[in-house]
Design brief:
Low-confidence stretches: 17-47, 178-183
Radius of gyration: 22 Å
Largest sheet: 6 strands, antiparallel
Mean pLDDT: 80
C-alpha cells in the first residue's frame, strides 16, 4: 500500500458495501434459522461477521472513516452485553491499527517535509510503524542528539480522503446507529467534519501539544510528550513507553483500573483551567499508563479552546439537576439555548431526564460500569418512554458540542475500565459553577 485510496467513487464503493453486506447476512441468517440453528447462534454469527466487515472497511479506508470508527469506539460500553462481545475486539483493534504504508512512501513524505537530508536528523529510524492513527502512522526513531522519539507521518491523500469520507458517512449514519443506542450520530459527524482542516496540519497539533506539555511539565500524575519538530505532515515528539489503556481495559487489575480512571477524570476536568485547552479525542488508543504510575496523553490534533476554562453554566446545570431544582434548571437551559424554541417541555421531565446522568456525583465515589451506561442508553433511546420525548425537546448549542462529546467519550472509557472514581471531588475542584 502506497497511499490512502483517494477517489471518491472508490471510497464510496467500499462504504456502500457495508449496508449491502449486512443486509445479505440478515437474509442468510433467516435461512440458517429455517434449517434448525437457534436464534442465539445466528445472532452471534451475524454480529461477529458484521463487526468484522464494518471495522475492516473503516480500517482500510483510514481517513475520516477510520476516525469515525475510533470516535464510535468509546461508546462500546453502552452496547448491550449480548451484542457487544463481537464488536469489542474489532473496536479495540481499530483504535490502534491500520494497514501500514510502505517504507518508500514514508521516506518520500519525510523528504518533502523535513528536507532531502532528513536522514541526518535521525541517528536511527525504524521503517516498521509502531502504531497507526486515523490520518497517520507512528515510527520509532532516535533523534540526532540521542533522544528516543516518535515520528508521526501523515498518509498521503489524507486531506482528500477525510473530506470525501465524511460526506459519504453522512449518508450511511443509520448503519452505525446500532453501535450508539440513545445517541444521534449525525451531530458527531458534523462536529468531526468541522475539525478536519485543523487536524490535517501537524504544525497546529504541535502547537497544541507544546501548550499542554508546558502546562503539565513536571506533573506527578500526567505526562505529555514534548515536541521535538513539526511540519505540516510530520510531527516528532519524545518517545514515552507505557501500557496502553486498551490493555488495562482488557485484563488490568482493579486497582490499576481505578488508578487509570482517576487520572483520566482529573486530566479531563483540570486541563481547561490549567492550559485553556481541552483534549478532544478521547479513546483508549490515546492514553497509556507509564511505569511510574502516570497517565501519558497522546494525539492533540483535536482540541477545544477554552481560554476561560470550562463554561460556568455547565456547573450550574449539574448542581441544579443534582438538587432537583427543576424550575431554575429549565430557566437556565432556556437561557443557554439548550431547549428548542418551539418546545413545551415540562421542568420535572427535564430533571427526570438529566438526573441519572449526574448520579456519579451523589456520593463520594462512583463505580462506572457498562451496565450503568447501558441503562442510560436504553432509557433515553426507548421510543415509548418520556425520557426519549424529553430528549427530542432539548438542543445542544454548537459551543457545547465538543465538550459534550469529550465528556461522553471519557465516561465511556471509565465504564470500559469498570473504574471507581471520586467524581464529586474532581468536579467540585475543577468545574466552575458546581461548588461555588
Amino acid at each position: 500500500m502506497t497511499e490512502i485510496p483517494r477517489k471518491a467513487v472508490q471510497r464510496t464503493a467500499k462504504l456502500a458495501s457495508l449496508p449491502l453486506g449486512m443486509a445479505g447476512r440478515v437474509v442468510g441468517g433467516w435461512g440458517k434459522r429455517l434449517i434448525g440453528q437457534s436464534a442465539e447462534e445466528v445472532n452471534s454469527q451475524l454480529s461477529a461477521k458484521t463487526a468484522e466487515q464494518l471495522f475492516a472497511v473503516l480500517g482500510q479506508l483510514k481517513g475520516g472513516a477510520m476516525k469515525f470508527g475510533q470516535a464510535l469506539s468509546v461508546f462500546e460500553a453502552a452496547v448491550p452485553d449480548e451484542l457487544a462481545a463481537p464488536y469489542r475486539e474489532a473496536l479495540t483493534k481499530l483504535q490502534a491499527a491500520a494497514p501500514p504504508l510502505e517504507a518508500r512512501t514514508v521516506h518520500r513524505v519525510l523528504a518533502a517535509q523535513l528536507g532531502r537530508s532528513w536522514t541526518k536528523r535521525f541517528a536511527e529510524f525504524d521503517d516498521t510503524p509502531a502504531a497507526a492513527a486515523s490520518i497517520g502512522q507512528v515510527h520509532r526513531a532516535v533523534w540526532h542528539d540521542g533522544r528516543e522519539v516518535a515520528v508521526k507521518v501523515q498518509y498521503p491523500g489524507a486531506d482528500e480522503a477525510l473530506l470525501a469520507d465524511l460526506r459519504q458517512l453522512q449518508r450511511f449514519s443509520r448503519v452505525f446507529q446500532a453501535l450508539v443506542p440513545g445517541a444521534d450520530v449525525k451531530p458527531l459527524l458534523t462536529e468531526l467534519q468541522d475539525r478536519m482542516v485543523e487536524e490535517l496540519d501537524y504544525r497546529t497539533e504541535g502547537d497544541n501539544e507544546r501548550a499542554f506539555a508546558k502546562s503539565f511539565d513536571g506533573d506527578e500524575h500526567v505526562v505529555i510528550p514534548k515536541v521535538v519538530a513539526s511540519a505540516p505532515m510530520v510531527l516528532v515528539t519524545e518517545w514515552v513507553t507505557g501500557t496502553p489503556l486498551a490493555s488495562v481495559i482488557r485484563d488490568g487489575e482493579q486497582s490499576v483500573r481505578d488508578r487509570a480512571g482517576l487520572l483520566l477524570s482529573e486530566f479531563h476536568f483540570s486541563s481547561p483551567a490549567r492550559s485553556g485547552l481541552l483534549h478532544a479525542d478521547p479513546h483508549p488508543g490515546n492514553f497509556m499508563l507509564t511505569q511510574d504510575g502516570r497517565l501519558c496523553v497522546l494525539d492533540f490534533g483535536a482540541v477545544a479552546r477554552l481560554p476561560e476554562g470550562l463554561p460556568r453554566p455547565l456547573g450550574l446545570m449539574t448542581r441544579l439537576s443534582l438538587e432537583q431544582r427543576s424550575e431554575e434548571l429549565l430557566d437556565l437551559l432556556r437561557n443557554e439555548h439548550f431547549v428548542r424554541p418551539d418546545s413545551t417541555v415540562q421542568a420535572q421531565d427535564v430533571v427526570d431526564y438529566l438526573g441519572p446522568f449526574v448520579e456519579p456525583l451523589r456520593a463520594d465515589s462512583f463505580k462506572f460500569t457498562r451496565k450503568w451506561l447501558q441503562k442510560q442508553a436504553e432509557r433515553i433511546g426507548d421510543l415509548r418512554g418520556q425520557d426519549f420525548r424529553t430528549g427530542r425537546s432539548l438542543n445542544l448549542p454548537p459551543q457545547y458540542l465538543l465538550i459534550h462529546r469529550v465528556t461522553m467519550g471519557a465516561t465511556g472509557i471509565l465504564c470500559q475500565l469498570d473504574a471507581e472514581v471520586p467524581a464529586r471531588d474532581i468536579v467540585s475542584r475543577w468545574q466552575p459553577g458546581f461548588a461555588d
